[in-house]
Amino acid sequence: MKKIADDILNKVISSRPIISYKGSFGRVITIGGNEEYGGAIIMATNAAVHAGAGLVTCATSKINVTALHAQLPEAMFIDYTDTTKLNQAITKSNVVVIGPGLGTTAQSLAILKTTIAALSANHFIIVDGSAITLLAKNRNLLSQLKIANVIFTPHEMEWQRLSGIPIPNQDIKSNQSKQESLSANVVLKKYHTEIYHTNGSISQLSIGGPYMSTGGMGDTLTGIIAAFLCQFKQVSTSDRIDAAVYIHSAVASSLATQKYVVLPSDIIAELQHYMLISQKK
Ligand SMILES: NC(=O)C1=CN([C@@H]2O[C@H](COP(=O)(O)OP(=O)(O)OC[C@H]3O[C@@H](n4cnc5c(N)ncnc54)[C@H](OP(=O)(O)O)[C@@H]3O)[C@@H](O)[C@H]2O)[C@@H](O)CC1
Ligand SMILES: Nc1ncnc2c1ncn2[C@@H]1O[C@H](COP(=O)(O)OP(=O)(O)O)[C@@H](O)[C@H]1O
Ligand SMILES: [Mg+2]
Hints:
The protein is of the alpha/beta class. The protein has 12 helices and 10 strands. The protein has one domain: Ribokinase (UDP-N-acetylmuramoyl-L-alanine:D-glutamate ligase).
Protein backbone atom coordinates (compact mmCIF):
# COMPACT_ATOMS: atom_id res chain seq x y z
CA MET A 1 0.00 0.00 0.00
CA LYS A 2 1.40 3.34 -1.12
CA LYS A 3 1.13 6.38 1.19
CA ILE A 4 0.02 9.40 -0.83
CA ALA A 5 2.67 12.11 -0.58
CA ASP A 6 2.43 15.86 -1.08
CA ASP A 7 4.09 15.68 -4.51
CA ILE A 8 0.91 14.13 -5.96
CA LEU A 9 -0.53 17.66 -6.19
CA ASN A 10 2.40 19.00 -8.17
CA LYS A 11 2.17 15.97 -10.45
CA VAL A 12 -1.56 16.31 -11.17
CA ILE A 13 -2.44 20.02 -11.00
CA SER A 14 -1.09 21.63 -14.15
CA SER A 15 -1.27 25.25 -15.26
CA ARG A 16 -4.15 25.92 -17.63
CA PRO A 17 -3.41 26.08 -21.35
CA ILE A 18 -3.77 29.63 -22.68
CA ILE A 19 -5.88 28.49 -25.61
CA SER A 20 -8.84 27.09 -23.73
CA TYR A 21 -12.45 27.72 -22.78
CA LYS A 22 -14.84 26.40 -20.13
CA GLY A 23 -15.44 23.22 -22.14
CA SER A 24 -11.72 22.41 -21.91
CA PHE A 25 -12.11 21.78 -18.17
CA GLY A 26 -14.98 19.36 -18.33
CA ARG A 27 -18.65 19.10 -17.54
CA VAL A 28 -19.94 17.72 -14.24
CA ILE A 29 -23.48 16.85 -13.24
CA THR A 30 -24.26 16.43 -9.55
CA ILE A 31 -27.44 14.49 -8.73
CA GLY A 32 -28.98 14.43 -5.26
CA GLY A 33 -30.36 16.72 -2.58
CA ASN A 34 -33.93 15.84 -1.66
CA GLU A 35 -36.23 18.04 0.47
CA GLU A 36 -34.24 17.21 3.66
CA TYR A 37 -30.67 17.10 2.39
CA GLY A 38 -30.33 19.97 -0.08
CA GLY A 39 -27.12 21.09 1.63
CA ALA A 40 -25.33 17.88 0.64
CA ILE A 41 -25.70 18.37 -3.11
CA ILE A 42 -25.04 22.12 -2.83
CA MET A 43 -21.71 21.36 -1.11
CA ALA A 44 -20.78 18.76 -3.75
CA THR A 45 -21.65 21.21 -6.54
CA ASN A 46 -19.83 24.09 -4.87
CA ALA A 47 -16.72 21.94 -4.41
CA ALA A 48 -16.75 20.91 -8.09
CA VAL A 49 -16.95 24.56 -9.21
CA HIS A 50 -14.23 25.71 -6.79
CA ALA A 51 -11.94 22.81 -7.76
CA GLY A 52 -12.09 23.98 -11.38
CA ALA A 53 -14.70 22.01 -13.33
CA GLY A 54 -15.59 24.07 -16.40
CA LEU A 55 -19.36 23.66 -16.33
CA VAL A 56 -21.40 22.23 -13.48
CA THR A 57 -25.08 21.34 -13.47
CA CYS A 58 -26.92 20.40 -10.29
CA ALA A 59 -29.89 18.04 -10.68
CA THR A 60 -31.84 18.30 -7.46
CA SER A 61 -35.27 18.86 -5.93
CA LYS A 62 -36.93 22.06 -7.12
CA ILE A 63 -37.06 23.18 -3.51
CA ASN A 64 -33.26 23.66 -3.52
CA VAL A 65 -32.88 25.94 -6.52
CA THR A 66 -33.03 29.28 -4.69
CA ALA A 67 -30.54 28.16 -2.06
CA LEU A 68 -28.25 26.79 -4.75
CA HIS A 69 -28.27 29.97 -6.81
CA ALA A 70 -27.99 32.24 -3.78
CA GLN A 71 -24.68 30.53 -2.95
CA LEU A 72 -23.48 29.52 -6.37
CA PRO A 73 -24.84 31.34 -9.44
CA GLU A 74 -22.12 29.57 -11.46
CA ALA A 75 -24.05 26.30 -11.28
CA MET A 76 -26.87 25.38 -13.64
CA PHE A 77 -29.99 23.69 -12.29
CA ILE A 78 -32.35 20.98 -13.45
CA ASP A 79 -35.24 19.38 -11.62
CA TYR A 80 -34.07 15.83 -10.96
CA THR A 81 -37.56 14.44 -11.55
CA ASP A 82 -37.53 15.72 -15.15
CA THR A 83 -36.34 12.50 -16.77
CA THR A 84 -35.87 13.97 -20.24
CA LYS A 85 -33.70 16.85 -19.03
CA LEU A 86 -31.78 14.59 -16.67
CA ASN A 87 -30.99 12.20 -19.52
CA GLN A 88 -29.84 15.01 -21.81
CA ALA A 89 -27.66 16.60 -19.13
CA ILE A 90 -26.01 13.26 -18.25
CA THR A 91 -25.29 12.58 -21.91
CA LYS A 92 -23.48 15.95 -22.20
CA SER A 93 -21.43 15.45 -19.00
CA ASN A 94 -18.02 13.88 -18.55
CA VAL A 95 -18.43 13.18 -14.84
CA VAL A 96 -21.58 12.27 -12.92
CA VAL A 97 -21.81 12.55 -9.13
CA ILE A 98 -24.80 10.75 -7.66
CA GLY A 99 -25.89 10.29 -4.07
CA PRO A 100 -25.17 13.24 -1.78
CA GLY A 101 -28.50 13.84 -0.03
CA LEU A 102 -30.41 11.79 -2.63
CA GLY A 103 -32.33 9.84 0.03
CA THR A 104 -33.53 6.27 -0.21
CA THR A 105 -37.19 6.62 -1.23
CA ALA A 106 -38.87 5.14 -4.32
CA GLN A 107 -38.29 8.48 -6.04
CA SER A 108 -34.56 8.37 -5.16
CA LEU A 109 -34.33 4.88 -6.64
CA ALA A 110 -36.11 5.98 -9.82
CA ILE A 111 -33.58 8.83 -10.26
CA LEU A 112 -30.71 6.39 -9.72
CA LYS A 113 -32.16 4.03 -12.35
CA THR A 114 -32.59 6.86 -14.89
CA THR A 115 -29.00 7.91 -14.25
CA ILE A 116 -27.54 4.45 -14.69
CA ALA A 117 -29.52 3.90 -17.90
CA ALA A 118 -28.04 7.12 -19.36
CA LEU A 119 -24.38 6.13 -18.76
CA SER A 120 -21.87 5.27 -21.45
CA ALA A 121 -18.31 3.95 -21.46
CA ASN A 122 -17.00 7.54 -21.66
CA HIS A 123 -18.48 8.56 -18.33
CA PHE A 124 -16.94 8.67 -14.91
CA ILE A 125 -19.55 8.17 -12.19
CA ILE A 126 -18.88 8.91 -8.53
CA VAL A 127 -21.35 7.00 -6.40
CA ASP A 128 -21.69 8.36 -2.87
CA GLY A 129 -23.97 8.50 0.16
CA SER A 130 -27.57 7.45 -0.44
CA ALA A 131 -26.75 6.04 -3.90
CA ILE A 132 -24.43 3.49 -2.27
CA THR A 133 -27.12 2.54 0.22
CA LEU A 134 -29.66 2.18 -2.61
CA LEU A 135 -27.30 0.01 -4.69
CA ALA A 136 -26.63 -2.22 -1.69
CA LYS A 137 -30.38 -2.90 -1.57
CA ASN A 138 -30.86 -3.12 -5.36
CA ARG A 139 -27.88 -5.22 -6.38
CA ASN A 140 -29.27 -5.98 -9.84
CA LEU A 141 -28.27 -2.41 -10.80
CA LEU A 142 -24.59 -3.05 -10.07
CA SER A 143 -23.88 -4.87 -13.33
CA GLN A 144 -25.44 -2.05 -15.44
CA LEU A 145 -23.26 0.49 -13.65
CA LYS A 146 -20.13 -1.29 -14.89
CA ILE A 147 -20.52 0.22 -18.35
CA ALA A 148 -18.98 3.45 -16.95
CA ASN A 149 -15.79 4.17 -14.99
CA VAL A 150 -17.06 3.89 -11.44
CA ILE A 151 -15.74 5.42 -8.24
CA PHE A 152 -17.52 4.46 -5.01
CA THR A 153 -16.84 6.80 -2.06
CA PRO A 154 -18.31 4.98 0.97
CA HIS A 155 -17.77 5.67 4.65
CA GLU A 156 -17.28 2.50 6.66
CA MET A 157 -21.00 1.82 7.21
CA GLU A 158 -21.81 2.42 3.54
CA TRP A 159 -18.98 0.03 2.65
CA GLN A 160 -20.42 -2.54 5.07
CA ARG A 161 -23.77 -2.24 3.29
CA LEU A 162 -22.29 -2.48 -0.21
CA SER A 163 -19.56 -5.05 0.38
CA GLY A 164 -21.21 -7.12 3.09
CA ILE A 165 -17.97 -6.88 5.11
CA PRO A 166 -18.70 -5.85 8.72
CA ILE A 167 -16.71 -2.77 9.81
CA PRO A 168 -14.38 -4.66 12.19
CA ASN A 169 -13.47 -7.10 9.37
CA GLN A 170 -12.70 -4.45 6.73
CA ASP A 171 -9.09 -5.46 6.16
CA ILE A 172 -7.10 -4.77 3.02
CA LYS A 173 -7.41 -8.24 1.53
CA SER A 174 -11.20 -8.47 1.97
CA ASN A 175 -11.72 -4.92 0.76
CA GLN A 176 -9.62 -5.42 -2.36
CA SER A 177 -11.30 -8.66 -3.24
CA LYS A 178 -14.74 -6.99 -3.03
CA GLN A 179 -13.51 -3.94 -4.97
CA GLU A 180 -12.30 -6.23 -7.76
CA SER A 181 -15.67 -7.93 -8.00
CA LEU A 182 -17.33 -4.51 -8.29
CA SER A 183 -14.92 -3.54 -11.15
CA ALA A 184 -14.79 -0.08 -9.59
CA ASN A 185 -12.44 2.23 -7.74
CA VAL A 186 -13.28 2.39 -4.04
CA VAL A 187 -12.40 5.35 -1.82
CA LEU A 188 -12.98 3.93 1.67
CA LYS A 189 -13.31 7.08 3.79
CA LYS A 190 -12.12 7.07 7.37
CA TYR A 191 -9.13 8.24 9.43
CA HIS A 192 -6.39 7.51 6.88
CA THR A 193 -8.69 6.82 3.94
CA GLU A 194 -7.79 3.86 1.72
CA ILE A 195 -8.19 3.94 -2.06
CA TYR A 196 -8.54 0.69 -3.99
CA HIS A 197 -7.91 1.36 -7.68
CA THR A 198 -9.07 -0.68 -10.66
CA ASN A 199 -5.42 -0.88 -11.79
CA GLY A 200 -4.71 -3.04 -8.71
CA SER A 201 -2.84 -0.39 -6.72
CA ILE A 202 -3.87 0.70 -3.24
CA SER A 203 -3.13 4.15 -1.84
CA GLN A 204 -3.57 5.51 1.65
CA LEU A 205 -3.85 8.99 3.13
CA SER A 206 -1.63 9.79 6.07
CA ILE A 207 -3.06 13.27 6.68
CA GLY A 208 -6.44 14.53 7.91
CA GLY A 209 -8.00 14.27 11.34
CA PRO A 210 -10.99 14.73 13.64
CA TYR A 211 -11.31 18.44 12.79
CA MET A 212 -12.93 17.02 9.61
CA SER A 213 -15.72 15.16 11.40
CA THR A 214 -18.59 17.44 10.29
CA GLY A 215 -21.64 16.56 8.14
CA GLY A 216 -21.00 17.42 4.50
CA MET A 217 -17.28 16.63 4.54
CA GLY A 218 -17.73 13.60 2.26
CA ASP A 219 -20.21 15.42 0.02
CA THR A 220 -17.51 18.03 -0.55
CA LEU A 221 -14.94 15.37 -1.43
CA THR A 222 -17.17 14.04 -4.23
CA GLY A 223 -17.17 17.45 -5.94
CA ILE A 224 -13.38 17.71 -5.73
CA ILE A 225 -12.91 14.22 -7.20
CA ALA A 226 -15.32 15.12 -10.03
CA ALA A 227 -13.43 18.31 -10.89
CA PHE A 228 -10.04 16.55 -10.83
CA LEU A 229 -11.31 13.73 -13.06
CA CYS A 230 -12.65 16.06 -15.72
CA GLN A 231 -9.70 18.47 -15.80
CA PHE A 232 -6.39 16.68 -15.41
CA LYS A 233 -6.58 14.21 -18.28
CA GLN A 234 -2.80 14.20 -18.79
CA VAL A 235 -2.36 11.94 -15.74
CA SER A 236 -3.83 8.55 -14.84
CA THR A 237 -7.25 8.14 -13.27
CA SER A 238 -5.62 6.75 -10.13
CA ASP A 239 -3.40 9.83 -9.75
CA ARG A 240 -6.37 12.16 -10.28
CA ILE A 241 -8.36 10.38 -7.57
CA ASP A 242 -5.40 10.29 -5.16
CA ALA A 243 -4.71 14.00 -5.69
CA ALA A 244 -8.36 14.93 -5.06
CA VAL A 245 -8.52 12.87 -1.87
CA TYR A 246 -5.18 14.32 -0.76
CA ILE A 247 -6.04 18.00 -1.36
CA HIS A 248 -9.32 17.66 0.57
CA SER A 249 -7.44 16.64 3.72
CA ALA A 250 -4.40 18.84 3.03
CA VAL A 251 -6.58 21.96 2.94
CA ALA A 252 -8.38 20.78 6.08
CA SER A 253 -5.17 20.14 7.99
CA SER A 254 -3.76 23.49 6.92
CA LEU A 255 -6.93 25.29 8.12
CA ALA A 256 -6.89 23.25 11.35
CA THR A 257 -3.79 25.15 12.47
CA GLN A 258 -6.14 28.15 12.88
CA LYS A 259 -9.52 26.53 13.55
CA TYR A 260 -10.75 23.93 16.08
CA VAL A 261 -13.13 22.43 13.52
CA VAL A 262 -12.88 22.86 9.77
CA LEU A 263 -16.19 23.15 7.90
CA PRO A 264 -16.75 21.76 4.41
CA SER A 265 -17.48 25.35 3.31
CA ASP A 266 -14.07 26.46 4.68
CA ILE A 267 -12.38 23.84 2.50
CA ILE A 268 -14.39 24.88 -0.55
CA ALA A 269 -13.43 28.54 -0.08
CA GLU A 270 -9.71 27.67 0.22
CA LEU A 271 -9.48 25.29 -2.76
CA GLN A 272 -8.74 27.90 -5.45
CA HIS A 273 -5.79 29.29 -3.49
CA TYR A 274 -4.44 25.87 -2.50
CA MET A 275 -4.59 24.63 -6.09
CA LEU A 276 -2.73 27.73 -7.29
CA ILE A 277 0.17 27.23 -4.89
CA SER A 278 0.26 23.47 -5.51
CA GLN A 279 0.33 23.50 -9.31
CA LYS A 280 3.20 22.29 -11.49
CA LYS A 281 5.52 25.20 -12.21
N1 LIG B 1 -26.26 18.90 5.04
C1 LIG B 1 -26.75 17.80 4.44
O1 LIG B 1 -27.68 17.87 3.65
C2 LIG B 1 -26.13 16.49 4.75
C3 LIG B 1 -26.64 15.35 4.14
N2 LIG B 1 -26.04 14.15 4.24
C4 LIG B 1 -26.59 13.05 3.44
O2 LIG B 1 -27.34 12.24 4.27
C5 LIG B 1 -27.52 10.97 3.68
C6 LIG B 1 -27.25 9.89 4.70
O3 LIG B 1 -25.85 9.83 4.98
P1 LIG B 1 -25.27 9.56 6.42
O4 LIG B 1 -23.86 9.19 6.27
O5 LIG B 1 -25.54 10.76 7.29
O6 LIG B 1 -26.17 8.39 6.99
P2 LIG B 1 -26.06 6.79 6.83
O7 LIG B 1 -25.75 6.34 5.49
O8 LIG B 1 -27.27 6.19 7.44
O9 LIG B 1 -24.80 6.44 7.77
C7 LIG B 1 -24.84 6.75 9.13
C8 LIG B 1 -24.93 5.45 9.96
O10 LIG B 1 -23.69 4.75 9.78
C9 LIG B 1 -23.04 4.63 11.03
N3 LIG B 1 -21.59 4.71 10.83
C10 LIG B 1 -20.67 3.79 11.22
N4 LIG B 1 -19.45 4.14 10.86
C11 LIG B 1 -19.57 5.32 10.25
C12 LIG B 1 -18.62 6.18 9.65
N5 LIG B 1 -17.32 5.91 9.61
N6 LIG B 1 -19.06 7.32 9.08
C13 LIG B 1 -20.37 7.63 9.11
N7 LIG B 1 -21.34 6.83 9.66
C14 LIG B 1 -20.91 5.69 10.23
C15 LIG B 1 -23.62 5.73 11.88
O11 LIG B 1 -23.42 5.36 13.20
P3 LIG B 1 -23.78 6.33 14.47
O12 LIG B 1 -23.50 7.74 13.99
O13 LIG B 1 -25.21 6.10 14.69
O14 LIG B 1 -22.88 5.88 15.52
C16 LIG B 1 -25.06 5.74 11.43
O15 LIG B 1 -25.78 4.67 12.05
C17 LIG B 1 -26.52 10.91 2.51
O16 LIG B 1 -27.21 11.11 1.30
C18 LIG B 1 -25.62 12.06 2.80
O17 LIG B 1 -25.05 12.57 1.60
C19 LIG B 1 -24.87 13.97 5.06
O18 LIG B 1 -23.80 14.05 4.18
C20 LIG B 1 -24.77 15.02 6.16
C21 LIG B 1 -24.96 16.41 5.65
N1 LIG C 1 -11.43 11.72 12.29
C1 LIG C 1 -11.25 11.87 10.98
N2 LIG C 1 -10.01 11.78 10.45
C2 LIG C 1 -9.80 11.93 9.14
N3 LIG C 1 -10.78 12.16 8.24
C3 LIG C 1 -12.03 12.24 8.71
C4 LIG C 1 -12.33 12.12 10.09
N4 LIG C 1 -13.67 12.27 10.24
C5 LIG C 1 -14.18 12.49 9.01
N5 LIG C 1 -13.19 12.46 8.10
C6 LIG C 1 -13.34 12.61 6.63
O1 LIG C 1 -14.53 13.33 6.35
C7 LIG C 1 -15.28 12.71 5.30
C8 LIG C 1 -16.60 12.17 5.86
O2 LIG C 1 -17.35 11.59 4.82
P1 LIG C 1 -18.89 11.21 5.04
O3 LIG C 1 -19.06 10.42 6.27
O4 LIG C 1 -19.38 10.66 3.77
O5 LIG C 1 -19.51 12.68 5.29
P2 LIG C 1 -20.89 13.33 4.82
O6 LIG C 1 -21.75 12.23 4.26
O7 LIG C 1 -21.47 13.92 6.06
O8 LIG C 1 -20.56 14.35 3.80
C9 LIG C 1 -14.35 11.61 4.75
O9 LIG C 1 -13.54 12.12 3.73
C10 LIG C 1 -13.52 11.25 5.97
O10 LIG C 1 -12.29 10.67 5.63
MG1 LIG D 1 -21.31 10.79 2.98
